[in-house]
Amino acid sequence: MAAFSLGPIAVAQPIPSVVAANGILCDLVRVVAGADVSVVCLVPNGGDPHDYRLTARDRSAIQSASVVFLNGYQLSPALDRIGRLKRTVKVAEVAVPSSPRRDPHVWHDPMQAASMATVVSNQLKGLVPLQAVAGIGARASRVRSELKRLDKWASSQFDTIPKTHRVIVTEHDALSSMATRYKVRYLPLMQSFASGGPLRPSSLGSIVQAAQSSGTKYLFSEAKNPSKTLRRISKVSGVPIYRSQFLSVDGVANGGTYVSTFVSNVCSVVTAQGGVCDRTSGDALGAQWKALGRSQ
């Protein structure tokens, strides 16, 4: 009778699981991770990371995760305590240790988002088998290339805004990274002139004067329905609110990706302020980003 020798049987290794705290991180992590890592997202697209509260389901996902990716800079204060229980990485703080005014919304500069992707990639490489490391590195490299193209596109769009209108005026401070990158003046009205709480008449006077003298053609809302405060500022100052599209400043817009959300924000600002935005080429970048996410 012939004797058969059985070699070692390959056993499939379980796919590591990670948690990404918000929509921006979720998109970046998923694209870089591909099929090599399972990604659980806490804040859905269109959600507000500032007001996030842990649920029982989220706690379970966090306990099962190899690492939890947080934004940092207190974007989601409710998540700061996780570090005591689980390995966490505050991606924005590592990628951009000198964020202007410690603004947590660092992804509004695509090159800073590219640095975030590098931080994510470095962490993921330590979780996967050796044969998966090269794939993660290659995907991270493609992400950086796509974001470099996005940055170049955005710079060209902002350059079309007349000099007197190169300003972004919002209610709250969230776009300092975008303004710094593209050399646009930024005026977050409430943070600049109010100390918190109800808007006082003295603060309103300063805000109105600043809005009127800023050179902006519009005030930009951060929600589909502008806040009562922003409507009041608009009414008193005579500076209208840009109604065609609100700015998605806290994450990924519903049904979108990081790139499509960024393109929408840029075109809203550029068009409102008298520039010409090439939405067709921007949407093409968005389609390429989606294809990158599907090609894993």
Task: Looking at this protein, list some descriptive labels.
single chain, 4-stranded parallel β-sheet, 46% helix, 296 residues, globular, alpha/beta, 11 helices, Rossmann fold, 6 strands, two-stranded parallel sheet
How would the blueprint of this fold be written?
Layout lengths: L16 E4 L2 H11 L4 E4 L14 H9 L2 E4 L17 E3 H5 L14 H16 L4 H29 L8 E4 L5 H6 L3 E4 H5 L7 H13 L14 H10 L20 H15 L6 H16 L2
Parallel strand pairs: 1-2, 1-3, 3-4, 5-6
Helix pairs in contact: 1-4, 1-5, 4-5, 5-10, 5-11, 8-9, 10-11
Commentary on this structure:
- The protein has 2 domains: 140 residues, 3-Layer(aba) Sandwich (Rossmann fold); 130 residues, Nitrogenase molybdenum iron protein domain (Rossmann fold, 3-Layer(aba) Sandwich).
- It is α/β, with parallel strands linked by helices and 296 residues long.
- The chain is globular and about 65 Å long.
- The strands form 2 sheets. A 4-stranded parallel β-sheet has the order 2-1-3-4, with helices on both faces.
- The longest helix is centred in the middle third of the chain and has 29 residues.
- The protein has 11 helices and 6 strands.
Which radius of gyration do the C-alpha atoms yield? 22 Å
The dominant shape is: globular
Structure summary, number of beta strands: 6
Sheet bearing the most strands, described? Answer: 4 strands, parallel
Listing every helix as H and every strand as E from the N terminus to the C terminus, the arrangement reads: EHEHEEHHHEHEHHHHH
Report the top-level CATH class of the largest domain: Alpha Beta
What fold name goes in the CATH topology slot of the largest domain?
Rossmann fold
DSSP summary: helix tally: 11
* Helix/strand class: alpha/beta
* Low-confidence runs: none
- For CATH, the homologous superfamily of the largest domain is named as Nitrogenase molybdenum iron protein domain
Mean pLDDT, all residues: 91
Beta-strand share of residues: 5-15%
The CATH architecture of the largest domain comes to 3-Layer(aba) Sandwich
What is the helix content?
Answer: 40-55%
